[in-house]
Amino acid sequence: MATSPFDALIAGAGPAGCAAAITLARLGRRVALLNRAPSHAGWRIGETFGGEIRPLIERLGAAAEFASVPRLAFRAVRSAWGSAEAFERPTMLHPYGEGWHVDRAAFDDALKRVAGAAGVVLSPGDGTRPVRDAGSGWTAGGVVARYLIDASGRGGPALPGRRWIQNDRMIALAHRLPARAAGGELLIEAVETGWWYSAPQPDGGLVAAWMTDPELARAPAYERWRDALALAPHTSARVGSPPDDPPCAFRAETGRLEPSSSNEDRWVACGDAAWAGDPLSGDGVARALRSGVAAAEAVHRALDGGVLEMDAEPAYRTFLERQARFYAMETRWPESVFWSRRR
Ligand SMILES: Cc1cc2nc3c(=O)[nH]c(=O)nc-3n(C[C@H](O)[C@H](O)[C@H](O)COP(=O)(O)OP(=O)(O)OC[C@H]3O[C@@H](n4cnc5c(N)ncnc54)[C@H](O)[C@@H]3O)c2cc1C
Hints:
Blueprint: E1 6-11, H1 15-26, E2 31-35, E3 48-49, H2 53-59, H3 63-66, E4 71-74, E5 76-80, E6 87-90, E7 99-102, H4 104-117, E8 121-124, E9 131-133, E10 137-140, E11 143-150, E12 163-166, E13 171-177, E14 185-191, E15 194-200, E16 206-212, H5 221-230, H6 233-239, E17 248-251, E18 255-258, E19 261-262, E20 267-269, E21 275-276, H7 284-303, H8 313-328, H9 337-340
Parallel strand pairs: 1-2, 1-11, 2-8, 5-14, 11-20
Antiparallel strand pairs: 3-7, 4-7, 5-6, 9-10, 10-11, 12-18, 13-16, 13-17, 14-15, 15-16, 18-21, 19-20
The structure holds flavin-adenine dinucleotide.
């Protein structure tokens, strides 16, 4: 490993970290990207992208690698939200056209390849926490760098001592089901104990996730999953007979890091590590790519003597308002714990 300091150390090789790494490397900076292996046996959740992903991928010079990622056209959103009936909205009306359902692990790997080709040094990040070094900046995994970009995802700041403020405690209990006869649409269906989303996968399978609060999914989780599925006729029709094994649990809360940058300590957070939104928005990956680029540009300016500043607060506030409007549209279960917390 090099002993002279890198310009930036990026903790987290998800979309935000890769976008930051690619951008900084193309600006001529020396970048190390810490890459912790994901949990859940390599399964990455967050697999449906709207058309807005297209210009972002092109801007990162990742179109050729993206072409190799297994994907399906994302043709419509069908939602039973605020009513038992499901309504369909085609995605071709989006200004950038329809999006994709992708193999998300393959998508993240494609971004890492683009980063490697841009000159980024990929370094294993297992169990590594970057440490502030009063002299040169930051160290982790044998890497020394002047600036740190925290791109470690939702709720787990790469550094101890930072405050993650949760707006709710939502979790996702999800299954990846083998070949199911599902159309090309994303299905969203509200139930008394939360809401469901299901999305077809390029290999013919289906991802089906129940979004709920932890105490509504108390063990055995697979029984609660089945109970919740029985409340969702549109999703049940797609899933067919539910699996016997327990679903995988993912954090899915809305929350933010406070503060999201420090000029004095030379770090900035981006993507979900800065603030993470309710997956209902369906645009977390596009947001992470944008935020990674913005963090890289901020660090680039700071390396030239500018002030490092990124304020996540305004975008987060706007998101919370939009989220509240969405949840207010569902009025069917006035006594429900899940819904009354969000109205
Ligand atoms: C249930 C669910 C469904 C979703 N569906 C969608 C969807 O359909 N479309 C969409 O656009 N978005 C969706 N999202 C949101 C989307 O997945 C996230 O917004 C996006 O992954 C954020 O990217 P990121 O790079 O900020 O973080 P992440 O993708 O979480 O990447 C962070 C990376 O950092 C690594 N890491 C953590 N700590 C360290 C460390 N100390 N050192 C090194 N590495 C570290 C992690 O292993 C991970 O690889 C969904 C989210 C959930 C929970």
